[in-house]
Structures are given as C-alpha cells and as structure tokens.
## 1
Amino acid sequence: MDELVIDNVNLIYHTLKKLNMYHLLEEYYDVGMIGLVKASKKYTEEKGKFSTYACTCIANEILLEVRKQKSGKRNAEVISINKVIYSDDSGSITIEDTISSNECIEEKIIEEEQYRIMYKLIDELKASDKELIKNYYGIGREKMTQLELAKCMKQSQTQISRRIEKLIKEMRSKVR
C-alpha cells in the first residue's frame, strides 16, 4: 500500500490541475494526500484502474475540504499554547501561563446562565417543537438521530433537519 501511494503522488498534482486549483497546491496537497491514502486502502481491482479511482478520491477529498472552508467549519486558526499574548521589559506571558488548573467560577456562572436561557427558550416553543429539540439533543432523555425522529414523527429526515435548523435560528435570534 505504501508503495502504491508513493508511486502515485503525482496524481495529486494532476487532480489539482484538473480542478483548476494548481495555484493552491500548498493548501491542498495534504488534503490530496489524504484522498490518495484513502484510495489505496479501499481500492480493489473491481473498481477499475487505480489511477482513475485515486483521482476521483483525491478530487472528492479536496472538494469536501473546499466546502468545509466555505461553510466556515475549518477557518479557525491553530494557535500554540506557547504563543506570547503580552510582553514588556519584565518578561512575557504566554497562553499556557494563563491556563489555570483550578475551575473558573466566572466561567461556571456564565455557563449556568447560558443553560438557564436555553431551557427558557426551549420551554417557550410549541409542544411538538419542544419535544423535537429535547429528543434531538437528549435533554432529559436519550438523544435521537434525525432519522429516528423522522420515523417517530412520520416525516422525512429532511423535514426534521429543516425544522431543527429553523428552531435553532429562532432561538439564537432571541438571544442576540
């Protein structure tokens, strides 16, 4: 398998070029490598020629990453705990210096207040919406998947997904 990956690294360049993303090589090479490794693990001869299969896997992995970035799910910057956040003549303070092993009372109070607000917002919902949210997030009961909820409520999974999304947006708008 390792040999298969090493022998086909050029497929990453080929796929990026085919997707008109060659100028983004540095950002997506690693993602392409993940696609190539997945292809080498899942490949069987019934799937046809390896290079064709691998190019599809690489392209899918890159396009998935592009969609994640566009939706904002992976735009968070990675920061080291050794990053200096304050510095003067007497020394510097890093993020690690500010991390306390003791429980922060302020954070606990804020968290409890957020839970109180969330439960209040849930209680203000219609009975069916309240049950949907409580079942989906496992509030006071076992969590249920959208598919399980859809079967119970005799709706499609898509309808359940849209209802949950709409309810969350409504609750967020009331908090802001």
## 2
Amino acid sequence: MALTESKMMRLGTVAPNFSLEDTVTGETVQLGDVESPHGTVIFFLCNHCPYVIHVNPELVRLANAYKKKGIGFAAISSNDAVQYPQDGPEAMKQTAAKVGYPFPYLYDKTQEVAKAYDAACTPDIFVFDGRGRLYYRGRLDGSRPNNDMPLTGEDLRAALDHLLAGDPPPEQQYPSAGCNIKWKN
C-alpha cells in the first residue's frame, strides 16, 4: 500500500452532490441530508487502510464533539469491493458498528463521487462552509501509524474552530496522506 497524498481541491469549490446508500441503515443519503448551515465534513475512508484504522478513534471523538456544535458529517468509501471485499457494504456496516461511527458510512459503488471530489486517499478530508464551499481540505493531524506523534486531530479541529468563529480558511493546509483509493480497472 503506497502512501498517497490528497490532491488539495481548490478552496471555494462547491461541494459535489451525491446520493449514496448508507451501509448501516440501508437508506439513501444525499449531501443535503448531512449538510449543516454551520459546516459539513466529508471523510473518504475505507475499512482496511492502516492510516484510517489509526485515525478512527479521533474521527469518532471529533465528530461527536463537533456535531454538538452544529457541524454535519458523512463518511464515504469508494474502494472497489470486487478487488477488496473487506471494503464492501456488509463489512462497512460491521466496521461502523465496531468503531462507533456517529455519522453515515456511505458506499460509492460507481466511484463517481470520489471522482467528483477528486479524492485520492484514505483518509481524505473535506470541510465545507455553511454555503457549501470548500473551506479546508487536508489532514487530521501529523500522526501516522508508527510515527509516535499523538493522535489529536489538531489540524482539523483548528479548521473547524476557525470556521465556527467566522474566520477565513486557515492559510496553512497540509495534505492528508494514506492508502490510495482502490480504483476499478
């Protein structure tokens, strides 16, 4: 699994709409169902990536904390489930329950949503403001598996705090890094 960095979509880009199955509830979820007038976070995740497994505890803590402040959340897996069955919908449902995701965990079977967001890796993180415009894209924090840096979520937390305070986007934004999205052949 080669380390891949996010592509850093241009700030101000309007959030691409989606309509995907929530693997936990079986319901169809659209962007508007998770959007908040205070801001919205879209995570691209998967079940087997060691980078995602490493950050999962902080994703849960962060989402629980910021949902109380009015931020909307959703996670999307776009990996090819034929080549990587551990990333398929049933396994996603099990992972969401095991980890305790407090947000919908959506399956992007066609991979069109990942392409629309220009997502490249897992985790790949996008924060949109209350008008649906990209405010932050990048890493959770500097922690990676085996680098001995504490898992704090400091970069994403700072971006969300600035967003909630009405501040402009942070000038310094570092790309996220993890496993590449497993594209269909």
## 3
Amino acid sequence: MPRIISPAEFQSAGTVSLARWLLGKVLVRTRRGKRTALRITETEAYVGEHDRACHAAKGRTARTDVMYRPGGVWYVYLCYGVHEMLNLVTGPEDRPAAILIRSVEGISGPGRVTKALGIDRKLNGAAAHPDTGLHLEDDGLVVPPRSIKKGPRVGVDYAGPVWARKPWRFKLRPG
C-alpha cells in the first residue's frame, strides 16, 4: 500500500536533496472521480533569494508569495504566457525554495505534465494532500544513485553561468 507523503515532510530538509529524493515517487492527480498516478522522472531545485535562477531572487512579490509559505504546498505559475508549471514548495516559512516537476513517466516536459493532468493556477498554494486533488505517494521504490543523472537546470541562462550551471536537475536514467 503506498504511503501518502505528508506536506510536513517538505518543511525542513534541503531542497536539492528533496529534488533527488522525489525521483521515483508518485504524483497523484484526482479529478472528477478519476485517479491518475504517475512516477516522477525528472525534477529541478531552486533554493531561495540568493539563487539567481529562482523566482524568489527578486524578493517577495504577489507571484512568489506562495514560495515563502512552509513547504508542502504547490507553486503553479504561467510560463511564457502559455504553459502552467508545477513546483513543490520546500523548506520552512520565509525561506523560499521549490522543486519543479519536469517529467513523469510517459510525459516529458513540465508544460506537458500540467496539461496532461489538468493542473493549473487554481492549485497554486494548495497543500500537496489528497483533499486538494494533487498529492504525492511513496510506494517503496528505492532509486539507486547510479540510476540518477545530474545536470544543469534548463532555461535559466539569464541567471548567469554560476547559477545556470548548478547541477540541480535530476533525471531517472532509462532502464
């Protein structure tokens, strides 16, 4: 029986470690009585105001306010006016950090993930809990370190080479 991952589990541990840990966990979307459960295959970590690639680098705004909440809530925003992006807020209150869900099994790309699962900004600020229709589960799968590929984050060249090259993107290797 899969274990529902509590939002509280994302309120203290390091965001980069959690981004790695989320690989192999299950993203569960429930809407109109239908449950869709897909394994997370790629994530990216963003670690606060000092991280120039993080939305919080410009401080607290109406858009980023959700990132300053205690971890375990969803941060959903519109990218390029086209794609909704799903992030999980991590860390304690007033320490903005989040993990972008880049891919799940069978769906590659963060915009495609949200589109396929019907995720939009209505979930922004909602808890990662079954009551909200979007939560995480751990079914006991252990992902060995050799099965994880690390690399630089995608689409953040604007942050400068130091931050753009941080190896904070994690992906399950095929097979």
